[in-house]
Amino acid sequence: MIAKDLILEGFKERFGFIDHTCNPDLKDIFTYYNREGYAFFVGFHRDQVICTGALTKEHDEAGRT
User: What is the mean pLDDT of residues 35-58?
Assistant: First the structure.
């Protein structure tokens, strides 16, 4: 998945390594975010993925980006 690769590339650039245990949502992005109160976004410039973002439901009145 291009979005997953972009995210992991960003982690490596920022932290110098990738710890795959820290982000279990990346194992199956579609399944993880395909539920009520959750959303995953992919931004494109022309035909290239340039950014990603996610929303998660913390409780009935709050979420997290």
Answer: 96
* Alpha-carbon distances, residue 61 vs 35, 36, 38 (angstroms): 16, 13, 13
The string over 22-59, giving b where at least 16 C-beta atoms fall within 10 Å of a residue's C-beta and e elsewhere, is eeeebeebeebbeeeeeebeeeeeeeeeeebebebeee
Total domains present in the chain? 1
Quote the pTM value.
Answer: 0.83
Per-residue CA distances from 19 to 5, 41, 42, 45 (Å): 13, 22, 22, 28
In whole angstroms, how far apart are CA 29 and each of 16, 33, 46, 61?
A: 23, 6, 23, 24
Q: Which domain holds residue 11?
A: 2-64
